[in-house]
Amino acid sequence: MRTAFPLATLFLLVVATGPACAFGAGSKVPDQQSIDALEVKASQAQPREQCYLYAELVQQMTEFSLRQYSEGNVSTASAALKHIQQFTHKIHASVAGSDKRIKNAEILLRHTAFRLNEMLHNGSYEDRPLVEQTLTDVNQAQNETLMMVFRK
Asked: Are 109 and 55 in contact, with CB atoms under 8 Å apart?
């Protein structure tokens, strides 16, 4: 019984700090300029590379949106979520012609879905429908990329 309390405390500490480290200790949260540059790069890329680049863009925009929510910039965060929805539709359109780094795109989308799920549970009630719709779109894109991984 004496070891149960320290183990439970350690478990709670690991669970509480795990999601905060999910983006990576050495990773910096992207800013608007890097997101804009990646958007231009993705739109000009070859069709076989677009799926991964759009998945990377969705992941970076999700991290940007999370930061904006935490800083209280709800309108900027909501706009980013709407852009994420647009880019998931572009992933849907580009996944069939993509053969480069499709597994990496699936991993990025899975991580993004995890972060959006965190946002859904930690966010305010007013923002819930937009976050739910964005999460649904990201999950759909992630499922499509996963199906492409298994087709190869």
From this structure: yes
**Mean per-residue pLDDT for 114-134?**
90
More confident residue, 91 or 7: 91
Token representation of residue 129: 């429908």
User: Is the pTM value of this prediction over 0.90?
Assistant: no
Single-letter amino acid, residue 149:
V
Q: Write the DSSP assignment of 76-135 as a string of letters.
A: HHHHHHHHHHHHHHHHHHHSTT--SSHHHHHHHHHHHHHHHHHHHHHS-STTHHHHHHHH
**What pLDDT was estimated at residue 99?**
66
Domain borders along the chain are 30-151
Other beta carbons within 10 Å of 18: 9
CA atoms within 13 A on the CB side of 123: 25
Are the CB atoms for 144 and 91 separated by under 8 Å?
yes
